[in-house]
Every structure is written in structure tokens, then in C-alpha cells.
């Protein structure tokens, strides 16, 4: 419980790709069925202040990685009346290409990042293609420039960014992955980002295939259940089912959902 005013919270889809169930679970899956992936960023709005969580990717990464970009991050934020060029604070959950690749849309922003993620993305592990393939070197180099420009704020573990908003290091998927806890009109919700790509990863304790530390990924599921007031209010990072469980603003079905309401399992 907190005395802070609640945030409005939005998930905005900017890209998609076709995939199969076996792509998303360590050890594969016995059912060779489609399980597509959506790509989101998130916006938190309160009293005229906007926080954005992650920056998506742009055309070049879409072409290189065979992803379908359905709108730029700037266009996605404009759907809910936010101008990306005016945003002053962006939380980066981790530095994979689909979470930092659109950083240029935020020229005024300060980026909030875990110490351990920057160390990971610029250290010896990036010499290993099995780990580095989800990173784009140019994005990391750009972020280093932002460090020297005073535009990166580092966090070590858990940090309150303002009343009703905090980040929590969980690791697992990457060494420095952080999740975001947000106070809303329905209590505390958690934006999992890639701590759980799909509802099924966390609900069935079945880790995603890209993983730095499998034990930490499983621990992250438990941590998020502790941080959220209701386990149904943990929002995965890439699951199209988000559109089934949450309402969309009028005229924005399949593009935007409102997350500061109780989800439906119907």
C-alpha cells in the first residue's frame, strides 16, 4: 500500500513475428503448434509526467532479424498522445536489441539501467555468439556515449524512482535484467519484460530459451509474485494474450492495452 497517486499504464505493440511453441521453452515443446510473439513498449502516466519502459527497435533491426515492424515506437506512443521526443525518463529493462534499439526516438531522455547489465553488455560474455546474438553492438556503443553525456542513471538492485514506481534486479534472462513495479488503481502491478516472455513461462515454471542463469530466471517468477498484489497482474513481455486479458482504448484494439485494470481470464 502507498499514499502515492496511481499511474495509468499502457502496453503498446510495435512489432511481431511468427513463431512455434518449441521456440519459447528450454527443452522445446512436444506440441508443434504456432505461438507467435508480440513486441511491446510500456508507458506510465501520472499528473502529466511520463515514464517509458524500453525503446523497441527500428527498421534496420527489423530487416536484419526478420521481424515485422508494424509501427515505430514514436508512432506507437503518439497513439496515446505522447511525443517520444519530449520524454525525459526511460527505464531500460535490459540491453537486447528489441529493448534498446529505438533509443534515438528519445533525445531528451535519461536512461535508467542496472550496473550489471552494462557490465554484461560490454564485457567478456559478448565474445560468445550464443550470448551476444541478441545484442546489437551499435546500440551498446550509443549507450556508452550517453553515459559520457550524463544521460544514464545506474541502479544496483532495487531502487525507488519515485513514489509508486520502482525497479528490481532479477537477472536470469540477462545478467542485469530488471523488472518494473508500478502502483495503480488496482494496486501493485509488475511489468515483467523478459523475466517472462509469455504467461506460460512463469505460470508453468518453464524458462524461456534465451537465458543467462536458469536458476535466477525461476527465482524471478517467485520475486514477481511477491512484488505484485495479484499474480494475474504480472504482465509478460511478449505474449499476444495480453490483448485478450486487458481492454484496449476505443479504436486501438491490437495496438494498445490499458494495464491499470484487473485482467480477465475469460
Could you characterize the architecture of this molecule?
It is a single chain. By secondary structure, this protein is of the alpha/beta class. It has a single domain (8-258), classed as Metallo-beta-lactamase, Chain A. 24% of the residues lie in helices and 26% in strands. Strands 1, 2, 3, 4, 5, 6, 7 and 13 form an 8-stranded mixed β-sheet that branches. The longest helix has 14 residues, at 214-227. The radius of gyration is 17 Å and the shape is globular.
Q: In a few lines, what is going on in this structure?
A:
The protein has 266 residues and is an alpha/beta fold. The chain has 9 helices and 13 strands.
Mean pLDDT rating? 97
Q: What general form does the structure show? A: globular
Biggest sheet overview: 8 strands, mixed
CATH class membership = Alpha Beta
CATH architecture: 4-Layer Sandwich
CATH 4th-level superfamily: Ribonuclease Z/Hydroxyacylglutathione hydrolase-like
Number of domains: 1
The DSSP helix count reads 9
Question: Which residue ranges are poorly predicted, with pLDDT under 50 across at least 5 consecutive positions?
Answer: none
Counting helices, strands and paired strands, the structural category is alpha/beta
Helix residue percentage: 10-25%
Order of SSEs, N→C?
EEEHEHEHEHHHEEEEEHHEHE
The count of β-strands is: 13
Tell me the CATH topology: Metallo-beta-lactamase, Chain A
Residue fraction in strands: 25-35%
Distance between the termini: 28 Å
